[in-house]
Design goal:
By secondary structure, this protein is an alpha/beta fold. The chain is built from nine helices and six strands; from the N terminus they run αααβαβααββαβαβα. The two termini are about 30 Å apart.
């Protein structure tokens, strides 16, 4: 399905009845509605960041639902697409934290290729209908993905922004890992603890401390 070690890691999950029913439902949704991201990009986060390479997990809720925005990586948009407000705030915090000038486009592919797993808890959405594919089975699947990453022997940083992402903290029980949590970067909550939380420098400090290559944010 994916083309790297995730296929082995998730082999049993792919065989379960709920997953078969989930894919069947989603296939039909693509047939009769406008669904994002494109079919070929649904598992993009997995393809760009193999299991063995995962060093950081950033957890989103569900894909952007505006036309042309979602690309299968949480918070990321393709070059040429207007940056959504949450992503603008992420880049503001990145500048405040590490002095990195805000990039011209909103693509986070560079992060994904370095081991930053950009996972949405729900992997598809109907156009202009936020959370429209909530509770159809994606959460069961991505909860298992989080548990699999928790099982890794190598230290991993889990970045949880907002109450929804923080609700997944219960799956992160391995003491080797670091959990960084704060308010969501949305304009509605960014000033309630997201800004000045310094997640990027804290992540790199932890990676360096554990003899892992830091992320070039």
């Amino acid at each position: 399905m994916i083309g790297n070690d995730w296929d082995t890691i998730l082999e049993e999950e792919f065989k379960k009845e709920y997953f078969y029913n989930l894919l069947k439902f989603v296939q039909n949704e693509y047939r009769i509605k406008t669904v994002y991201p494109s079919k070929k990009e649904v598992f993009k986060a997995f393809r760009y960041t193999p299991y063995k390479d995962v060093k950081v997990v950033i957890l989103g809720q569900d894909p952007y639902h505006g036309e042309g925005e979602a690309e299968g990586l949480c918070f990321s948009v393709k070059p040429g697409v207007k940056k959504p407000p949450s992503l603008n705030n992420i880049f503001k915090e990145l500048h405040d934290d590490l002095g990195i000038v805000e990039p011209q486009d909103g693509s986070l592919v560079k992060w994904a290729k370095q081991g930053v797993f950009l996972l949405n808890a729900v992997l598809t959405v109907i156009k202009d209908q936020a959370a429209s594919h909530k509770d159809i089975g994606w959460e069961r699947f991505t909860d298992e993905v989080i548990k699999k990453i928790n099982d890794k022997n190598e230290p991993v940083v889990f970045i949880l922004w907002g109450n929804y992402a923080r609700s997944k903290k219960k799956f992160i029980t391995n003491k080797k890992h670091l959990v960084i949590e704060s308010a969501h970067p949305s304009p509605l909550s960014a000033y309630n603890g997201f800004f000045k939380s310094h997640p990027f420098s804290r992540t790199n400090q932890f990676l360096i401390k554990n003899n892992l290559k830091p992320i070039e944010w």
